[in-house]
Amino acid sequence: MSIAYFNGDYLPLDQVRISPLDRGFLFGDSVYEVIPSYAGEFFLLPEHLERLARSLEAIRIPNPFAPAEWTALLTDLLVRNADPATPDLGVYLQVTRGVAPRDHAFPADARPTVLAMASPIRPLPEAVRVEGVAAVTAEDCRWERCDIKATTLLANVLNRQEAMERGAVEAVLLRDGKLTEGAASNVFVVLDGRVITPPLDASVLPGVTRWRVLELARELGYPVEERGVSADELARAGEIWLTSSTREILPVTRLDDHAVGAGLPGPVWQAVHAAYQAAKPGAQVRTPMQSGGSA
Ligand SMILES: Cc1ncc(COP(=O)(O)O)c(C=O)c1O
């Protein structure tokens, strides 16, 4: 049983007891993060903690810890969950507004509830590296503050379920004819050799992986653009990628009923994926199989 952190204690996950009056449970009044670690070391932790601080501030929950305290707490959690069979762990952490009698307005004196738990990150399967994945387009019917990493994810859940039922791994969302992001990922397209992703506004989450992928693409010398992407451009893209902390960079080779580009993971994905693998902690001890191979 994995060990969780819950309001000051470390305990087996199945012993965590959350009040039915917790506002995270009743209202989805909470925010979260998912932070990857490789070979016992966090990847891009300061960036995740910064986004957490922004999400908390946006919904006016006081941040219960300073960055150094979060780092100590989460590192302790990693150590307690260390297992050579699963060296790469994703830490899910959630902060709710706390426990209070049910009323929509903020309670006067609730203390934030803090939960963190770890689960294995599996290496990219060989089949995905060779063949890519399928995605489907769907209408983005989420709220207007998708820049906040809130746990209120019902629309995302329904979109992802629809994708699964249509034989795909992700729903790629369109709002007013423009690409926003995936149900649980940011989306990149490659068009005429240019790496393009929608700009950061309230319709997309400022993904930490998105940020790192943009940096790597620039370092590799690709022209990079953060701009609106139309449904037509999405349909014409030579490559489409999904980025997130646990799925890293997934090459989409089928969108709805058509092949993307040549129907195989493209050359720009190969290069950026290889650079991403090389940037991860412990990359030098990883085997080519685990890292998804070289480009
Ligand atoms: C809606 C949404 N967009 C983007 C992302 C990617 O964010 P990150 O790269 O920080 O994991 C996620 C991650 O879960 C997400 O849920």
How would you characterize the overall build of this protein?
The protein has 295 residues and is an alpha+beta fold. It folds into two domains: 3-120, Aminotransferase class 4, branched-chain amino acid transferase, N-terminal domain (D-amino Acid Aminotransferase, Chain A, domain 1); 126-291, D-amino Acid Aminotransferase, Chain A, domain 2 (Alpha-Beta Barrel). It is built from nine helices and 15 strands. The strands form two sheets. Strands 7, 8, 9, 10, 11, 12, 13, 14 and 15 form a nine-stranded mixed sheet that branches. The longest helix has 14 residues, at 45-58. The protein starts with a strand and ends with a helix. The relative contact order is 0.14. Mean pLDDT is 95; it is low at 288-295. Bound molecules: pyridoxal-5'-phosphate. Pyridoxal-5'-phosphate binds next to helix 6 and strand 13.
Labels describing this entry:
295 residues, alpha+beta, D-amino Acid Aminotransferase, Chain A, domain 1, D-amino Acid Aminotransferase, Chain A, domain 2, 2 domains, 9-stranded mixed sheet, 9 helices, 29% helix, binds pyridoxal-5'-phosphate
Largest sheet: 9 strands, mixed
Bound molecules: pyridoxal-5'-phosphate
Question: Quick check: average pLDDT?
Answer: 95
Helicity range of the residues?
25-40%
Rg estimate, integer Å: 19 Å
CATH overall fold name of the largest domain: D-amino Acid Aminotransferase, Chain A, domain 2
- Number of folding domains? 2
What class would the helix/strand composition place it in? alpha+beta
The total of beta strands comes to: 15
Q: What's the CATH first level of the largest domain?
A: Alpha Beta
**Form type:** globular
The CATH superfamily title of the largest domain: D-amino Acid Aminotransferase, subunit A, domain 2
Low-confidence sequence ranges: 288-295
The portion of residues forming beta strands comes to: 25-35%
CATH architectural group of the largest domain: Alpha-Beta Barrel
Span of the ends, CA to CA: 37 Å
Q: Helical segment tally?
A: 9
Q: What string gives the helices and strands in order?
A: EEHEEHHEEHEHEEEEHEHEEEHH
